[in-house]
Amino acid sequence: MTSLILDNSKIGEEAFELIWENTNDAIFLIGQDGAILHANPTFTDILMKKLLDSFRISGGVKYI
Length: 64
What we know:
It is a single chain. By secondary structure, the chain is mainly alpha-helical. It has a domain at about 20-60. The protein is about 50% helix and about 10% strand. It has two helices and two strands. Strands 1-2 form a two-stranded antiparallel sheet. A hairpin with a 5-residue loop joins strand 1 (about 30) and strand 2. It starts with 7 loop residues before the first helix and ends in a 6-residue tail after the last helix.
């Protein structure tokens, strides 16, 4: 009889990584100082879209 031993911590890491990279939800970690420490790709996509939208609405860069 063959025994199959699974490393649960490795499976957990892989599952977490799959969710982190592929979810449509924005996930991020914030430090105690309020700085964003780590963000998944969806968070970055949403943030960049919001920044670009607000940049377009404001009329872009104005030089003084």
